[in-house]
Amino acid sequence: MKLDIKDETLGMWLGVVGVAMFAITLPMTRLATGSQEAPQLSPWFVTLGRAALAGVLSAIFLLVTRSPRPAPHQWKSLGVAVLGNCIGFPLLLAYALRVVTASHAAVVTALLPLVTAAVAAWVLHQRARLGFWLCAVAGSLLVVVFSVLRASQTGHGFGFEWADLLLVGAVIAASFGYIYGAQVTPSLGAERVICWVCVMALPFTLPATLALWPTQPVATSSWLGFVYVGMFSMWIGFFAWYRGLALGGALRVSQTQLLQPFLSILASIPILGEPLDLVTLGFAIAVVATVVIGKRLSQPAANSASPASSSAGTAAPRRG
Fold it and tell me: CB neighbours (10 Å) of residue 131?
C-alpha cells in the first residue's frame, strides 16, 4: 500500500517528537540508578517501577476513553512489545549504565535505527532502495564516530567490555518492541498500543515495584530521573513514536533515531551544564542530512512507477 505524502511527513515529525522524549532516557536513567561507586535506585526497581507508573496512567487513560479490548490476534504483538519495551530494553540499559558512562552507551545504542529498520524490513516486509540502506549505514557510522570522539575528548576513553553485550541486547529488545507495537498501531491506535502494553505488564510490575521499594535514602535527583523515565520514556513518548511509525512507515521513521544521541547532548546542557561545541553541531547536521537523503532515496523514481511494480508492492513500504 502506498503511503500518503502528508501522512509520511507527519509520521517523520511525530518520530522526531518521540525521539526527543526518548533522548533524555540515558541521562535520566543514570540519575535514577547512580553508579557502582554511588548507587541509588536498583536497576530492577527502575525497570519495573517505570513500567508500573506507566501502567497505572495507562489504565486510567483506557478507562476514561472507554477503549475496547484488543482483538485476539493482536495479543501476540502486544506481548512482544511488553518483553522488548517494558522489560528487556530498560533492564539491560539500567544494568549497563551502572558500569559504563552514558557516552560509552551512546556508541552502542547508536545502532538502534539500523537494527529497527532491519527488523521492520523482516517483520513488516517493508522495502526500500539500496540508497536508503546506504544512508542508514552512513548515518549510524557518523553517530558511532562522533560518540567515540566525544568519549575520547572527555577523557572517558572507549573499549568494548561485557556491559556492551547488555547494550546490544537492549538495542535488539527495543527494536522488536518498536516494530511489533507498530504492527498493531494502525488498527488499535498509537495511544492504546502503549497503554495496553503497560497494562498487560501491570499485574507483575506493580507488586514487584512495591516489593522492591527502596529502604535506604535516595537522592531527589534520582527520583526525578525515575519519574521522567516512567512518564515520558515509557508512556508519553510512545504516543508520538508508535503513531509516527504507523503513518510514515516503520522502516523510514526509524531513522529519526539517529538524532537521539545529539538531542541527548542538547538536553544535557541545562541538566548537566555541558557546553555545545562546533564538532557536535557539525556531526548533527551531517546526520540530519543522511535522514533527509535517505527518506528521499527510499521513494521510487517517478518514471519507474508502473502498475506492475505497484501491484508487486515495490513502490513503497506497506503500513505496519
Answer: 14
SS3 assignment, position 34: strand
Alpha-carbon gap, residue 233 to 195, rounded angstroms: 13
pLDDT of 285-312, one tens digit each?
A: 777 677 677 766 655 444 444 333 333 3
Model pLDDT for residues 180-201, shown as the tens digit of each residue: 988 888 888 878 999 999 999 9
Residue with cell 548507587: 39
Distance CA 259, CA 151 (A): 18
Q: Cell 541486547: give the residue.
A: 169
For 103, the grid coordinates are: 557516552
Taking residue 214's Cβ as centre, other Cβ atoms within 10 Å add up to: 13
For the entire predicted model, the pTM comes to 0.73
- Nearest CA to 254 among 76, 138, 121? 121
Alpha carbon 238 to its chain centroid, in Å, reads 8
CA dist 3 → 49, 182, 310, 316 (Å): 38, 15, 12, 7
Name, in order, each residue with C-beta under 8 angstroms of 205's C-beta and a sequence gap of 6 or more: 48, 49, 51, 52, 55, 86
Is residue 16 within 8 A of residue 256, CB to CB? The reply is: yes
Q: Which residues of the chain have pLDDT under 50?
A: 1, 300-320
Instruction: Give percent helix, percent strand, percent coil of the chain, each to the nearest 5.
Output: 80, 0, 20
What gap in Å lies between CA 187 and CA 59, rounded to an integer? 19
Backbone φ, ψ for residue 219 (5° rounding): -60, 145
Q: Any idea what DSSP says for residue 299?
A: S
Beta bridge partners of 39: 34
Supply 57's cell numbers.
496512567
Strand, helix or coil at 39? strand
